[in-house]
Specification:
315 residues, six-stranded parallel sheet, eight-stranded mixed sheet, nucleotide binding, Gfo/Idh/MocA-like_OxRdtase_N, alpha/beta, 11 helices, globular
Length: 315
């Protein structure tokens, strides 16, 4: 007998959804892509034609009536708290794009709701699932590096720039180094809601040291991570390559050649692996790597960085 397919729905049909989720979900043989939801029905219908979802709807009530096993929340961050809470209350497992809420209070409430309902909530910290980041993690096995340097830079600022973009780097630093004991940070701004840069020095509980650099005054978009420890180093240039070195040799892995020149952003940036991980957890009853409880710790650390820098916190 064929295994029952997971009935999957997606809320949100913006850039991230169209580029990194809607092309991926139809690839899986164990998925029945039941429906799409958008605030404007015509937007959902247009996306439906592109990805082959069975139905398009415009309300949460119509969405949950589709009989879903799980749902992907890919809407703007200010919508996450309400939509995630509603879905969990309806007994639906949820994958949500980061952040799970714009305040720590709401994030804590959502994490508690996930624990209380017993439904799965995975937050889309997709960088953890990127092949180059996973390869760097494997360098240290069950251990961790002693020095972590993470940068995410862009050529222009935006509203709450550090909260919006540095959260991925903060999560990766926890992924590699564990929990953080102490935070010191600096920033520069004319308007505190549109900072020019934020830098932070992190002291991990295991004695490791980390440096976060989030510049919004750089020449181009850039994400890099350096890991050093045990006389080994890993240099990640997101999302394309990772170079691993020791005292004797250097080995570089580049994604595009491995994919015969056809490497896609959803694969290189970890979206495909993250989606597959969530679906497997739903099917097998397992806890996602970036579940609500773990994701809350990343939100809390980012709040500590914002406060140390003198920026508006996640109140």
């Amino acid at each position: 007998m064929a295994e029952k397919k997971l009935r999957v729905g997606v809320i949100g049909v913006g850039y991230v959804s169209k580029n990194n989720f809607l092309p991926v979900l139809p690839r899986f043989d164990d998925v029945e892509f039941v429906g799409l939801m958008a605030g404007k029905l015509e937007n959902a219908q247009h996306a439906q034609r592109l990805c082959g979802a069975q139905q398009a709807v415009a309300t949460l009530e119509a969405f949950v009536s589709l009989g879903l096993d799980c749902a992907f929340v890919l809407t703007p961050k200010q919508c996450h708290a309400e939509q995630i809470s509603f879905l969990l209350e309806q007994g639906i497992d949820v994958y949500s794009e980061k952040p799970m809420a714009t305040t720590l209070k709401d994030a804590a409430r959502i994490a508690e709701a996930a624990a209380k309902t017993g439904n799965k909530l995975m937050i889309g910290f997709n960088r953890r699932y990127a092949p180059v980041c996973q390869k760097a993690k494997a360098v240290y096995g069950e251990g961790s590096p002693e020095v972590i340097i993470a940068q995410k830079n862009r050529p222009a600022t935006e509203y709450r720039a550090t909260l919006e973009n540095a959260i991925h780097m903060v999560d990766l630093m926890r992924y590699y180094g564990g929990e953080v004991k102490d935070v010191n940070a600096l920033t520069k701004f004319t308007d505190p809601y549109y900072e020019t840069f934020t830098t932070a020095q992190l002291e991990f509980e295991n004695g490791a040291s980390g440096m976060l650099i989030a510049a919004r005054c750089s020449g181009q978009w850039e994400e890099t991570i350096e890991l050093h420890g045990n006389n080994r180093s890993a240099f990640i240039k997101m999302p394309d390559s990772v170079t691993v070195t020791d005292a004797e040799e250097q080995h570089k892995t580049a994604m595009t050649p491995l994919a015969m020149g056809w490497a896609k952003s959803e694969d290189k940036l970890g979206f495909t692996n993250a989606i597959r991980h969530f679906l497997d957890c739903v099917r097998d009853g397992k806890t996602p790597l970036t579940d609500a409880a773990d994701a809350y710790k990343t939100h809390e650390l980012l709040d500590r960085i914002l406060r140390a820098a003198g920026l508006p916190a996640m109140d």
